[in-house]
Amino acid sequence: MMDAADPSTLRAEHDQLMSKLSSRRSTGCFAHASISAFVGLIFAGAAGKLYWDTAARHEEWVLASALLGLGLLGYGLVQYLRGRAALAHEVQEFHRLSALRRSLGIDDPAAMLPR
After folding, report:
1. Is there a domain that residue 107 lies in?
2. Which residue has the higher pLDDT, 22 or 1?
3. Which residues contact 2 (CB under 8 A, 6 or more apart)?
4. Under a CB-based contact definition with an 8 Å cutoff, are residues 26 and 88 in contact?
5. Residue 4: inside a domain, yes or no?
6. CA–CA separation, 45 and 32 (whole Å)
7. Contact (CB, 8 A) for 77 and 33
8. Is the pLDDT of residue 97 over 70?
9. For residue 92, how far is the Cα from the chain centroid?
10. Does some domain include residue 14?
11. How many domains, in total, are found in the chain?
């Protein structure tokens, strides 16, 4: 099916996919997810420690740090789910790119040998 297509069209699609896959959205999403989850756990732990150790006069700090921690954990979860969806799309595009490279003979070792 791909062999019947025009090589210049296949090459243009190959170049487009290469430029698209050069910047991976999933990596940024996973980085945001891990950092926000880490900071969210720190704030949630601080809220728990404040609740355990302090008297009733610091309730606003406990509530503020707990809400901030939960908000960051929620943001981390959303970014993780976005990263998984972006990764699934990137894997599909990578398989298409691999098929294009095979049909164009780019990675064929026999084509690189001198004749």
Report:
1. no
2. 22
3. 10, 99, 100, 103
4. no
5. no
6. 20
7. yes
8. yes
9. 14
10. no
11. 1
